[in-house]
Amino acid sequence: MHYIIILFTTMLFLGCSSPTAPQPLYHSTKCVDSVYSLKSAKCLNNQEFIENLEPYQVIFIGDHHSSKKEHKMIAKTIRELSEKGYRIHLANEWFTPKDNPVLEEYSNGSIDDKEFIKKIKWQKKRGFKFDLFAPIYHAIIETKGKLYGINLSKRERKLISRVNISAMSKEEVSFFDSLDLDVSAHRDFLAPFFSYCHKAKKDESNEECLRRMYRVQVAWDTKMAQESAKLSKNILKTKKDKLIIFAGAAHVTYGLGINLRFARESNLPFVTIIPQSSNYTTIIHGKADFVYMYKKQRAAKELEKKLIQELNGQNSKK
Q1: Which of 32, 101, 116, 302 could pair with 106 as two cysteines, CB 3.0-4.6 Å apart?
Q2: Which alpha helices (H) appear in 163-297, and where do they start and end?
Q3: Radius of gyration over alpha carbons of the chain, in Å?
């Protein structure tokens, strides 16, 4: 009876208590223009960082599109891996698999920047200047690496956005049906970005617009994951081959985007690197494996401010 009373009292106490939700674990760092490892909880010098990357054939790198400083750090990583005998294959969010012939011409030096920009139709693909990304592409060319496209075409994106099943091929329907829209952690992470409808269609409610936006985001991640998995099977022939998947940071942060879906297609281990301005001295644990800590340049700050102003202007018009 004594044990029953103790058990009952314990259960009563637990039932009446209101436990608080666990708080996220934060890392504090003062790394500037270097790399912070969330695995070992310390700043790494270049040699230590490269040594940490060496065991992995697949590397996801998130991008802050306006940061040339981060892009120079990525270019440096490519060169340092190359110096150790690794051949780098860079799969880029900006391009589709149909762009691969032009990307091959560019990476093998058959065409220069000017011709590449023209043939790839850069201005239609990206809202950012080519010069911001040139350091990465030049590092690939100089180290005799390769470039690949992995994203959806504009046509595919529109079909998925509009759920235009009748205009899809059998392969496109199969892809559409495979989209996993039920990863709650992924939806929660993107919720602040999708808090309002960017461009509602005629007679479309805000809720319908947000569902459409999220559907396209998942389609992007899924397509890039599947194409990256195909590349990993076809090009990672030796231990000296490495595949870098380069996309916007939101596509890889917390391992919820491309990398989550890549893990469903491939058993290859991988690491994730994301950028963060050194203005912020804390990092939530689990955000990535490594973080490029870069000091914001004045031009990047001004560009970010301009984009925010333009976005606020669009919102006020609505």
Answers
A1: 116
A2: 170-178, 184-190, 206-235, 258-265
A3: 22
